[in-house]
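Priority: medium. Attachment 1 of 2:
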């Protein structure tokens, strides 16, 4: 008899990818969410997965297993029905631990770069015949799926440090039985879950300490906190960075078509090319090169796979190439936005106009110091109405609104403003941008059609050029 799995909150990138992977394994899959939007809704339809908006226990039925996303508040009708009817349930990290994690468990973790590195590692291993099981929280620019249940003893997981579920505050990566860790870079994030810098770093210290002596830690030592934390490793440690590392990257050149740089390890030096944008991607790619090399793959084959990886949606994704360029990036913290602005400054001579929406943790008063000077390379900053947070009514949370965020940025930036109406944001961008300028939408949410509206408005404005 075919087993039935139901996803409460299926429209997230990770949950939808996991749902599709289960369907490919022969499960009957269904899912619900507050709303459905492309590209996730398109993917689910293409795979014939039954989904519906809202929370309806009668549509959910009695699945063999329910996967409960963080979108499900304590009063969610389907969550209540799962508990009332004793339906077996798991958080999605628990499902990954049970169905995806293998004996050789590679986890990419860190404040920055974990989605790109986990995706690229999955791509490199798959291209070289390893057939890994994997999951990463992004959508590739080609048809490479974001989750897969492979046939080998290898798995690659994006190791998110945010909480597992409403009933489990442990970081997601705590479930993945890590044997090989790629640790990218660290700076305090998610202040709603980790109220102090020390509490944030402690989560990674525990992860490092739990890797067995037979395992491997590949550490990005450009990051001071990473350099400090790897002292707690009992596993073999290999480092990468711009200097004083086992794998050193240098001579980075960047153009609108991508990156080219050199990786040196001992006496060997290899030239690497990639279509990815951003100097920071040279660091990410070097980490992937190091870990893949340490697992026994030949460097030449790794380099070939890296060159063919097109990247991910919402990672400096170019949405419009024209007199005014439009980019979309998931940079939802001031530090991540700063890195994006720095990359665009190297590529475009005109103004950088940013539309910024922070994630949950960066709406907290504790995160305010991180905004200082983070937006200096943007010529103008617009903060839209912030996407409403899905919060448990029993949780009292203090959070800034869009006006507050614009005010905080404005303390160190002369051209920051709050525009609460979405059509007014599009109109302001159309009016403000000139040929040679670049507009970048930076944030973890989808901007409610503002990106598409801006692309249409600019394409129409410059249609005769």
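Attachment 2 of 2:
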């Amino acid at each position: 008899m075919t087993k039935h799995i139901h996803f409460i909150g299926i429209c997230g990138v990770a949950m939808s990818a996991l749902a599709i992977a289960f369907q490919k394994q022969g499960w009957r899959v269904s899912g619900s969410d507050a709303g459905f939007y492309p590209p996730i809704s398109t993917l689910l339809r293409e795979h014939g997965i039954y989904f519906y908006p809202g929370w309806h226990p009668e549509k959910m039925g009695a699945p063999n297993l329910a996967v409960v996303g963080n979108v499900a508040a304590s009063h969610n009708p389907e969550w209540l029905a799962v508990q009332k009817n004793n339906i077996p349930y798991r958080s999605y990290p628990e499902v990954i631990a049970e169905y995806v994690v293998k004996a050789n468990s590679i986890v990419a973790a860190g404040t920055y770069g974990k989605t790109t590195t986990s995706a690229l590692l999955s791509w490199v291993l798959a291209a070289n015949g390893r057939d890994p099981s994997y999951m990463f929280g992004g959508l590739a620019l080609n048809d490479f799926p974001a989750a897969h249940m492979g046939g080998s003893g290898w798995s690659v997981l994006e190791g998110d440090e945010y909480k597992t579920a409403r009933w489990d505050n442990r970081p997601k990566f705590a479930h993945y039985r890590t044997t090989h860790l790629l640790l990218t870079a660290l700076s305090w994030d998610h202040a709603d879950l980790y109220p102090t810098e020390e509490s944030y770093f402690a989560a990674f210290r525990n992860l490092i300490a739990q890797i067995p002596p037979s395992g491997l830690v590949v550490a990005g030592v450009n990051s001071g906190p990473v350099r400090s934390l790897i002292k707690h490793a009992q596993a073999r440690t290999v480092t990468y960075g711009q200097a004083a590392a086992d794998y050193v990257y240098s001579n980075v050149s960047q153009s609108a078509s991508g990156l080219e740089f050199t990786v040196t390890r001992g006496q060997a030096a290899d030239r690497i090319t990639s279509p990815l944008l951003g100097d920071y991607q040279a660091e990410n790619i070097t980490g992937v090169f190091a870990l893949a090399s340490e697992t026994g793959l030949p460097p030449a084959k790794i380099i070939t796979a890296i060159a063919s990886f097109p990247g991910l949606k919402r990672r400096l994704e170019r949405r419009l190439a024209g007199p005014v360029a439009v980019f979309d990036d998931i940079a939802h913290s001031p530090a991540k936005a700063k890195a994006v602005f720095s990359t665009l400054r190297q590529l475009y001579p005109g103004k950088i106009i940013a539309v910024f929406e922070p994630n949950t943790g960066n709406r907290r008063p504790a995160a305010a110091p991180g905004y200082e000077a983070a937006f200096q390379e943007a010529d103008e900053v617009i903060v839209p109405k912030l996407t409403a947070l899905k919060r448990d009514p029993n949780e009292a949370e203090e959070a800034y609104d869009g006006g507050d965020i614009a005010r905080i940025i404005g303390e160190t930036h002369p051209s920051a403003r709050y525009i609460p109406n979405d059509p007014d944001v599009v109109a302001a961008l159309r009016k403000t941008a000139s040929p040679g300028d670049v507009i970048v939408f930076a944030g973890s949410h989808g901007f409610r059609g503002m990106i598409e509206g801006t692309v249409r408005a600019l394409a129409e404005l410059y249609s005769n050029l």
